[in-house]
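Hi U.,

Before I forget, here's the chain from the pilot set. I'm dumping it here mostly so it's searchable later in email.
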Amino acid sequence: RKTISLTDRIVRVYAKWFCGNDVRQANAQMLAKKGDVLEMDWTQLRLGYRLGICFTLMVWLCFDCLWNLFSEGQVTLGGRSAFPVFRACGGLLIWHWCWSGATFVWRRYRINYINLFDFNPRIVQDPAT
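Structure:
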């Protein structure tokens, strides 16, 4: 009983604040969305595993570049002519990951980023695919 009365009270408060006292609209907006359940599936585990490997390789690369520079005064990988190319590729990869993460959050919380940024809705693709 207490749970039902608390739920009704929350719905009435939500309806008062956001729906102009329309309880039916408030109930419809507060329905659980598909994917709201906190389920652990294998894709999240794989993503965490891959991000962990990327982080480990990044720390190893930074350690390798800085250790020889400070301990022996020699430049290793950071002094090679191809290193700016690696940095550029890494920067593009990080930029793509950040954009994909931002659009995931915007889609999850129903923020219409396509119209906010004046994109053409007919040609915008999902960056997560």
